[in-house]
Structures are given as structure tokens and as C-alpha cells.
Amino acid sequence: MKKLTTADFNRVARGIMTTDTVPKLAARQVGNAKLVGIAKGVGMIEPNMATLLAFFFTDASIPKDVLPSIFRPTIDKTFNCLSIDTDTSTSDSAIILANGLAGEVEKQEFTSALQEIAHELVLAIARDGEGVTKVIEVTVDSAINYAQAKRVAKTIVNSPLVKTAVHGADPNWGRVVMAIGKCENDREINPENAIIKFGDIQVYPSSSNDENLEYLRQIMSKEKVNIDVSLNIGEASATVWGCDLSRGYVDFNSKYST
């Protein structure tokens, strides 16, 4: 068996493409070892991966009882926090293989490299989503627990009205408030305590002016739009990724047939 080389994986990344327009591949050096990740998927991704396939390969020596404890939390905080269109499928997989030929590596360094690759692939998938023109990153902090933070963030990033507002570069914070309000079972959330930011500008609670409005439109016109929400009821946080809803998505899926 040979040690890993990135050249081996370009064709693999292309070979697993379906409606993807570009291959997704990322790599890192970890000590004497290499870690490579490839993925595919641009539609029907929700709630946890769905049609997304991800494969990781390393020649690092990682004990088989240790590798899952590194891999599963990474997948949970990256690929399982990605949504393209809220629709689901049954064919999701995330696999990591280690042949050990490069010897042992420092665990934390390997964990960091894996997280970096997974995050890079998630953003690549979000950018290549069907009809996508913008990536949306939603961070919810000061929640009671991680599950609540992720639930609220997913509700925001999956809202058609939020998605279309981002597509049209419209800084309509009311749509974000509406999305938060859809989490009706989270009775601890008090709208009066919440803080909402688009980029680095607080939009709720806040009074806007023409100068801020123009700057906000510039923020919403970027290829990656950041929405941050502080619930101010706890200490947990979560970040999720999604994309805008465009005419291109509707056109593609109204004509696409399997």
C-alpha cells in the first residue's frame, strides 16, 4: 500500500458528483501524515446530510476506539449543521478510513485538521447548492443548550422568507424575528431579550437610518451573509450553514427529472 497523495483523489471527487458543478476536495498535513476529505451533494440536504456523501482518508495511525470519538462530534458540528433546501433523502454517509502507514500523530492536531477540512467542504457544498448565489451562516448564542441554539439557527436558515430576503439583499430583520417565533415550544425565548445582527450591524433592537440601511444592503449583497442572534437566556451556541432561494433553484428543480 502507498501513502496518500492528493493526486489520487481529484478523480474520485469528480466521480461521485451528481448535480454538483464542481468537485469538493480538501486536504491537510498532520505531522508526517496526510488527511484528505471529499464530498458531494448540492440539494435535498436536511436535516442531517441527506443526499450528502463525505469520505475522509488518512495514513495517520489512529486507534479504532479513538477515531469515532473524534469523527462523530466533527460531523455533528459541520455536515449535520448544513441545509440546502429543507428536503430529505435516504442516502447520506460519512466515512473515515485510516491505514496507519504514516505513524502516530498528535490527537488535537488531527482533530483540528479534520474540523478545518469538514468546515471547508461544508462551505463548498453550500456555495454549490442548486441555484445558489449566496451562502448564509447563522450563529445563535446565549441559548439554554446546544440543541436549542441549533434548532433556532436551523429555523432561521431554512425560512423561505429569510432565504429570499438574503437573495434580494434586503436587510429585513423582521423575517428573522418571525423565524425565531416559529420555535413556539421554546417558551424561554423572550423577543425583548434577543439581539439580531446582520454582519457587524445590530438590527434588532435598533433604530435604522439611511446610512446604516445602505451599509446593510452591502452586507446582504456579499457572497456570504452572516446572521447572528443572541437569545440571552443561557451560554450555549451553534452555527449552521445554508443558502439563498433563487429563481435558479426553482428553474432547475422544475425541469430536473430522475
Q: Helix amount, in percent? A: 25-40%
What is the string of helix and strand elements?
Answer: HEEEHEHEHHHEEHEEH
Q: Which stretches are poorly predicted, pLDDT < 50 over at least 5 residues?
A: none
Kindly estimate the percentage of residues that lie in beta strands according to DSSP. Answer: 15-25%
Radius of gyration: 20 Å
Sequence of strands across the biggest β-sheet:
7-6-8-5-9
Largest sheet: 5 strands, mixed
Mean pLDDT: 94
Count of alpha/pi helices = 8
Identify the overall geometry.
globular
Total E-strand runs: 9
Structural class: alpha+beta
Distance between the termini: 38 Å
Protein model, in words:
The chain is an alpha+beta fold and 258 residues long. 34% of the residues lie in helices and 23% in strands. The chain contains eight helices and nine strands. Strands 7-6-8-5-9 form a five-stranded mixed β-sheet. Helix 2 (67-77) links the parallel strand 3 and strand 4. Helix 2 runs parallel beside helix 3.
Keywords:
alpha+beta, five-stranded mixed beta sheet
